[in-house]
From TrEMBL:
It comes from the Eukaryota. SUPFAM superfamilies: NAD(P)-binding Rossmann-fold domains. One of its GO terms (molecular function) is chlorophyll(ide) b reductase activity. One of its GO terms (biological process) is chlorophyll catabolic process. This is NAD(P)-binding protein. PANTHER family: CHLOROPHYLL(IDE) B REDUCTASE NYC1, CHLOROPLASTIC-RELATED, NON-SPECIFIC LIPID TRANSFER PROTEIN-RELATED. It holds the Pfam family adh_short.
Length: 286
């Protein structure tokens, strides 16, 4: 289990545009923060990190308070945490893993969305909230990832519900007036070479679709951050792998016979000199 796109990759691109940010994770962030501060010394006081279990309302409340304290105004909130639960049939997934996936991927998004809307709507400038989607979001089957796919399938519905509540209110109740308005979006990073993607993968999966469609976190963040900063009307879907990009990648691989930069012919992850990788071929970012 890991994150669809490591928060450090997003933070890197925000900091490159002199935009302060807060990152959070259940894992220690010391290395990521040190690396980012060293890379952007003029922004060293503008990057902050806090430990947060998104399925804990106490942790989420603390995250919101921490972000408000450090940033003053929170303009963009990205619900990014996610776990896949392991690639196995649902009948073989331990109950504890089923509960973990739902707690992080769905309960976590609900708790974070609730707090983010409360926080950003209290600001005259409002804000933008992004719910990260993944495999299963369009309703197709995700064999081996039934828990993950079903939690992601629910997020577009949540995004639509939240936008309706914010813009129209709830029938039978007075619409609450707030200083600012929050707009909610779907954020789709596609396939990213992280532990979330590579965990329990097979050579066949790594050759296709990963070797054709997957991208490195830095590439995904570079593409998405400008779109996040200018997301358009509420409810829009912000995507890395749009139809044009998918067709281009298919053309390059299957017509031009272009080989993957990251997956070898035998399905193993190509390891580059000077980089650190774990046993599953996940590259260490910092």
């Amino acid at each position: 289990s890991s994150l669809p796109t490591p928060p450090q990759a997003y933070a890197d691109k925000f900091l490159s545009q002199s935009i302060p940010c807060v990152i959070c994770d259940v894992a220690p962030l010391d290395d990521a923060l040190s690396s980012l501060k060293n890379k952007y010394p003029s922004m060293s006081g503008k990057i902050h990190g806090v430990k947060c279990d998104v399925s804990s309302s106490e942790d989420v409340n603390n995250l919101a308070s921490f972000a408000k304290e450090k940033l003053g105004t929170v303009t963009h909130w990205i619900n990014n945490a996610g776990v896949n639960g392991g690639r196995r049939a649902l009948t073989e997934v331990p109950d504890s893993q089923v509960e973990l996936v739902v707690r992080v991927n769905l309960l976590g998004v609900l708790l974070c969305s609730k707090k983010a809307i409360e926080l950003m709507s209290s600001q005259p400038s409002g804000g933008c909230l992004f719910n990260t989607v993944g495999s299963g979001v369009k309703g197709g089957g995700t064999p081996g990832y039934a828990c993950y796919g079903s939690t992601k399938r629910g997020l577009p519905q949540l995004t639509a519900s939240l936008n309706d509540e914010i813009q129209k209110g709830v029938q039978g109740y007075d619409k609450k007036k707030t200083p600012g308005e929050v707009k909610v979006y779907s954020l789709s990073p596609g396939m990213v070479f992280t532990k979330l993607l590579l965990e329990d993968s097979t050579p066949e999966l790594r050759k296709f679709p990963f070797g054709v469609l997957a991208a490195q976190p830095e590439e995904v963040a570079s593409d998405l951050v400008p779109k996040i900063l200018n997301p358009g009307p509420a409810g829009s879907s912000i995507e890395f792998l749009g139809t044009d990009k998918i067709l281009t990648k298919f053309f390059e691989r299957f017509v031009l016979q272009k080989k993957s930069e990251y997956i070898a012919d035998d399905g193993s992850v190509i390891r580059f000199p000077g980089e650190e990788y774990d046993s599953e071929g996940v590259r260490k970012l910092y």
